[in-house]
């Protein structure tokens, strides 16, 4: 645990972990480096500590945080795996697709016989 913080009890550590997970899931617009920095700060970990927990090198994590490297999917899954998360693929809706998907059925087109 980062020496700048007081030692936390296990329940306090678990609460920080839940907060970190909820924050990352609530902010899908964050880049991976932003998410990693947030996780590290919220959980009161140093870069070296998070790297050790994730099973990656200090330098690799440091490069990801500084946006010198994007990291591989495997590496990011190791980092996120510390919290029980992993990268996934989702469909991105463009503005026109989003409007069509959220429009009520009656607005799809003219009714028959018009």
TrEMBL record:
InterPro entries: Cro/C1-type_HTH, Lambda_DNA-bd_dom_sf
Domain HTH cro/C1-type: 36-90
Gene3D superfamilies named among the record's database cross-references: lambda repressor-like DNA-binding domains
Pfam families xref list: HTH_3
GO molecular function: DNA binding
SMART domains given in the database record: HTH_XRE
Domain of life: Bacteria
Name listed for the protein in its UniProt record: Helix-turn-helix
Source organism per UniProt: Paenacidovorax caeni
């Amino acid at each position: 645990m980062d020496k700048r913080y007081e030692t936390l009890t296990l329940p306090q550590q678990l609460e920080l972990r839940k907060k970190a997970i909820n924050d990352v899931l609530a902010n899908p617009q964050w880049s991976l480096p932003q998410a990693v920095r947030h996780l590290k700060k919220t959980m009161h970990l140093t870069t070296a500590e998070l790297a050790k927990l994730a099973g990656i090198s200090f330098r690799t994590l440091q490069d990801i945080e500084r946006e010198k490297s994007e990291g591989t999917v495997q590496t990011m899954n190791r980092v996120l795996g510390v919290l029980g998360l992993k990268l996934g693929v989702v469909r991105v809706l463009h503005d026109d697709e989003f409007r069509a998907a959220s429009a009520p059925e009656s607005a799809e087109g003219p009714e028959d016989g018009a």
